[in-house]
């Protein structure tokens, strides 16, 4: 799971554990550490731990093992942790004769204590069948559509139209069908998944907050992830697939890219990242094309 910076222990029930211990490992550039040491600035690395659900905020001291490698141990009791626990490593050093200040940080790791609002790794979403013509929670404009995504604040849900002719049969789990039918089913999965993920990204992006002080400009504003858990999960899933920058830099870019070329750049990166995510969830498109080619031959 290192590519996604996610650790999920939610499959272990609350009754099965009382204490969590996590080994932490971080790397800092040796040339930067050498410069700071020569200047007498006493560099150090700490792990910053946040659990929004329990209002826990903690710093874990890390020990330099040489060659820029720092290690530490995070310990938490079960009553201190709920939902997602966010962990990042921070490099700090003294400024003058004063206290240390932050010089840089790692990308964010998320430890899921409870099942996430969106299963981050699989890229799957909650799905419910509904008879759209008679369903009160489906808007009139979507009554004849194959699907409808409710992107409410609590959690997104995809509704599939059971009254849509042929859709329940097409999306059934029956795998003993011709390759062409299976390909059509996967194409519909991809269409739904891509549309919903792009909608979720735009809702989550609009919820990014820039804390701008009275004398600050937009460039110095500090971005914050949305308060809604599923919106945070969407951004934490897509941002590493969209940009090589730190999470903070990526959030600022997304939040300020409202119009013009910057908006097009963000949407292009988002569409590409979502395409890769949906491809991983639905199965390799290349493999299905090869199967179709074999069936045709």
Question: DSSP strand (E) fraction?
Answer: 25-35%
Main sheet characteristics = 6 strands, mixed
Structural class: alpha+beta
In one word, what is the shape? elongated
Question: How many alpha or pi helices?
Answer: 7
> Mean pLDDT score, rounded?
82
Order of helices and strands: EEHEEEEEEEEEEHHEEHHHH
Radius of gyration: 23 Å
Count of the domains: 2
Helix content: 25-40%
Terminal CA distance reads 39 Å
Unreliable stretches (pLDDT < 50, length at least 5) are: 118-123
State the assembly state of the protein chains: single chain
Find the count of extended strands (DSSP E, 2+ residues): 14
Summarize the helices and strands and which ones pair or pack.
Layout: E1 6-8, E2 19-27, H1 30-38, E3 44-51, E4 56-61, E5 63-66, E6 69-77, E7 84-94, E8 100-105, E9 109-112, E10 127-130, E11 147-150, E12 157-161, H2 167-170, H3 179-206, E13 209-211, E14 222-224, H4 229-242, H5 247-256, H6 260-282, H7 285-296
Helix pairs in contact: 3-4, 3-6, 4-6
Structure commentary:
It is a single chain. With 297 residues, the chain is α+β, with helices and mostly antiparallel strands. Helix content is 34%, strand content 27%. It is built from 7 helices and 14 strands. Strands 1, 3, 4, 7, 8 and 9 form a 6-stranded mixed beta sheet that branches. A 3-stranded antiparallel beta sheet has the order 2-6-5, with no helix packed on it. Helix 3 crosses helix 4. The longest helix is centred in the middle third of the chain and has 28 residues. The radius of gyration is 23 Å and the shape is elongated.
